[in-house]
Amino acid sequence: MVAIDLSEVQLSNLTLLLTMRDSISRDPTLACGLFGLREPDARYLASLSSTQILAIVANVGNETLFAPRADLFTLLRSPLPLAGALCAVHPPAPILPAAPVAAAEQAPCMECAQLGARLRTIEIVSGLHQRQILRLLHADHCVPPRGRSPETPEWYHGGTLLDRTEASVFASLYRRLRGLDFDPAQALLGAYRHYRGICRRTPRLSFDRAFDLARHLDGIWNAKEVCFSLVTCAVCGSEHLAEAGAAAHAAGNCPFCKLMVRFPRDPRVQMSFPTPPLPDPACLQWRLAPNARLHTSRD
Predict the structure, then answer these.
(1) Which of UniProt's keywords are assigned here (predicted)?
(2) pTM of the full structure
């Protein structure tokens, strides 16, 4: 068996790579967003065995790989002399072939349904026929909501300030994942899951409306035209939705700036952003007591 003595820097590098690999295995979309990974790089890192990662860390030496570095995957793919010896002792597990196309199409179908999508939305995102979708959902005892999906972006322009703010949050998350080479369906699902996760109250944006935003942002999924663009506010620096063709650094129409102005004087806006509860005074006193005794003994 090959024994390797690792320095503190190498141990930190090993921890980083193993954490990234395990995060990708649990939730690829979220991991790519957290670490700024492209999807092909994430798949490559997920395919490495622990022995291969150990070999990479040993060969990189005492160069830190944090935060992670921009050239991380250049280093990971470079020829490593020690990797051959280690893999001969501990051969990596074989990479399983990709799931069949039918199974790969079922996953977004079921996830769309779990997120509250209507039948027409599921059909467009998954590429399955309605009969196939209903058969899958029936087997899983899942019933999609009735009614028509939004077909025009007019609902956004007629929405409240809070509606437009949350829509901009989702759109920014979606665009970021698209920039990391995720396909539209994966970016839509990942962005909506993340958006729901950061909402303290019930999300104002339904999955069907999030789908409508995404398709009119990119001009995909039967959208007749691109109706939205993401622009950066010149005042606060936030990305927000605007009509297609708006100036890249538009000012004066930012929902986040308007929200900050209205927050102190609008109780409805304040209720949408609950203040975290204050700490229990008894608990705070208990924590401060040891410090007080320490200072008293010194005096």
Answers:
(1) Activator, Cytoplasm, DNA-binding, Metal-binding, Transcription, Transcription regulation, Zinc
(2) 0.58
